[in-house]
Structures are given as C-alpha cells and as structure tokens.
Amino acid sequence: MTEPDHDCGFCPRLRSFILDNRKRHPGWHNGPVRTLYPREGLQAVELLIVGLAPGMRGANRTGRPFIGDHSGDLLYATLGAHGLASGSFEADTDDSLRLEKTAITNAVRCVPPENKPSGTEINTCRAFLSATISQMESLRAIITLGKISHHSTVRALGGKVSAHPFGHNAHTSIGGFELFSSYHCSRYNINTRRLTPNMFNAVFADVIRFLSRTQP
Ligand code: SF4
Q1: Residue whose CB lies within 8 A of the most ligand 1 atoms, among 7, 11, 21, for a mutation test
Q2: What is the mean pLDDT of residues 135-152?
Q3: What CATH number was assigned to the domain covering residues 12-213?
Q4: Would you kindly state where each structural domain of the chain is located, as residue ranges?
Q5: Nearest CA to ligand 1 atom 2
C-alpha cells in the first residue's frame, strides 16, 4: 500500500485539520497528497524527491506535490533546468507537466497545522514512504528536502540518523541508495537566502553526475 486513502484517519489531529479545511475550502483537494510519478510509471523512477508535507495553499489545494505555491516554483524550475521535468503545471491535472525518471512525494502526506507535523505523525506516515520506496525497482538516488524529511527517509531505509546526519549538499549511501540532502525550498528559506537557487542547483548537479556515473 504505497498511497493512503483520501480519508486516511491514522493521524487524528491531521484528519481533523483536513475536515475543517474541507468546510472552509470545499473546492480544494484537502486530503493526503499522492506521489507524483513520471508518465511511464513507478518502474521508471531513478530519482525520488522527498519533501516535508503538503503546503496549505499548494499541494493541499491542488492535490499534487509542490504544485501551486512558492516552494514548487523553485523545485520545478530546477528540475526543468536539469532535464528532470518539462512543461508547465496548471489547475488541470492533464496539463503539459512531465517528470523524467523522477518522482516527488512527502514524508507526511497530509497538510499539518503551521507546517509542523508531530513526531508521532511523521512516524505513522513513514509506512507510506517506506512502501513507496520499496516499489521503485529502478530507484538509485533520493533527495531529501529539510531535516525532518531526511531523518524520516533515513529511518524508512533502515538507517540510524546519527550515522547519516542531515547537511545541505551532503550525501550518504544507505540501503543501496545514494541519499542527497538539501535545505527545504520553502518560501521562508528562499526569502532569508538560507537556500539560494545556486545552492539548490548544486545539489541537483551532484545528483545528475551520480546518476550518469552509475547508469544501470
Ligand atoms: S499523515 Fe499519512 S498516516 Fe497520517 S493521516 Fe495523513 S496520510 Fe494518513
């Protein structure tokens, strides 16, 4: 089971937040956000990007990870610059957006209040992250965006966080995959210049070098 049901209730606080949002914004997605795959399907995925959780007015509104808010602008522009995405996204899911050998998901699939999932919620939703990773037979590299995503992915791969610490533009081998980490491309990190487009670009350049060096 790689994707939660639209009415997943494993995390009562997040479920209640989503139900409130369904009343406030009835036209929005307001549910767990599914992994976005290339058109060729999950077996074509060589690179997985793991964010933290859906943004309130981004993925929680549109139903697609990193689509509809500021953090997605930098992510999709960077993917496009490295040949990992093409086209543009619109409200219609049948738009021209295409991912190339890349999938995008979140460590926590439901929008949390104030963008802050609890430890229990992160641990609970990891079952879906682990299942998603285990289904990707061609997967070789993972990029984690932010410390929470990094820690949850390390644990999903059966590793210890102390042995694979988070660091911007750091990478480590774990569970047969190369795990690259980056500061999250959130509006806050971009506005404070904790993460610049050049810094983000450097992470993807390393990943592309790794993928070309290790062609299957
Ligand atoms: S965060 Fe994950 S486990 Fe928790 S309710 Fe949402 S989909 Fe279910």
Answers
A1: 11
A2: 97
A3: 3.40.470.10
A4: 12-213
A5: 125
